[in-house]
Amino acid sequence: AQTVTQSQPEMSVQEAETVTLSCTYDTSESDYYLFWYKQPPSRQMILVIRQEAYKQQNATENRFSVNFQKAAKSFSLKISDSQLGDAAMYFCAISGTYKYIFGTGTRLKVLA
Amino acid sequence: NAGVMQNPRHLVRRRGQEARLRCSPMKGHSHVYWYRQLPEEGLKFMVYLQKENIIDESGMPKERFSAEFPKEGPSILRIQQVVRGDSAAYFCASSDRGRNTGELFFGEGSRLTVL
Q1: Among all residues of chain B, which has the CA nearest to that of A36?
Q2: B43 and A44 in contact by Cβ < 8 A?
Q3: pLDDT tens digits, A52-105
Q4: Are the beta carbons of B104 and A98 separated by less than 8 Å?
């Protein structure tokens, strides 16, 4: 079975500052992908970044980057130069053979 | 290229009625997933379907819930004899790849309210 744990129900960051959202996971599969999705108040789920487990290099997408520690089963998301539009729920997810499992989410508040 | 389309966006049912939620995946996508989201909670996997086949329904309650993805037409999530606890947002997502290697594209969700 696969599990995803997000231990921070809520985080706050000052505009233009950097924030890191934590995610740990567990899986018995050797071939999997990890994702961070954003859910703004509109509730539309939007992919932020994706990491292939077999790649050691951390994925980066503009202001978003991950710290992927495979041995520790950790997959944190770093948001640099935070903007008001980054305020949303952020979900960490892992894909397995037949399904994607999501964490419980972290609500990010951006303070002006 | 139209995204994942879900309808209705909002559905109100009384206890005991049936709810039918529809999902049209992105063009070219043959993998459909249904998730349920309770207020202030994460997404709970319900079922994974490919065209005409249910691949994994381990997250779907055995009673009252069913799902299909016919050869032609949208995927349908059907909830019979709804109860108040079924009130939630139901999200559909689609992918163009097997083995879950690709991005999931989500619809805007269908919000079911049971009175």
Answers
A1: B103
A2: no
A3: 888 888 999 999 999 999 999 999 999 999 999 999 999 999 987 778 999 999
A4: no
Distance in angstroms (rounded) separating the CA atoms of residues A53 and A35: 10
Residue of A31, A44, A99 with shortest CB distance to B106: A44
pLDDT at A43: 84
- What are the pLDDT tens digits along chain B (115 aa)? 579 999 999 999 999 999 999 999 998 888 999 999 988 788 999 999 998 899 999 999 999 999 999 988 999 999 999 999 999 999 999 988 765 567 889 999 999 999 9
Chain B residues with CB under 8 Å of A46 CB are: 106
Task: Please spell the DSSP secondary structure of chain A, one letter per residue.
Answer: --EEE---SEEEEETTS-EEE--EEE-S-SS-EEEEEEE-TT---EEEEEEETT--SPPEETTEEEEEETTTTEEEEEE-S--GGG-EEEEEEEE-SS-EEE---EEEEEE-
Return the sign of the alpha-carbon dihedral for residues A55, A56, A62, A67: positive
Q: Which amino acid is at A11?
A: M
Q: Which residues contact B70 (CB under 8 A, 6 or more apart)?
A: B51, B52
- Residue A34's nearest CA partner among A82, A87, A77, A88 is A77
Q: With an 8 Å Cβ cutoff, is A3 touching chain B?
A: no
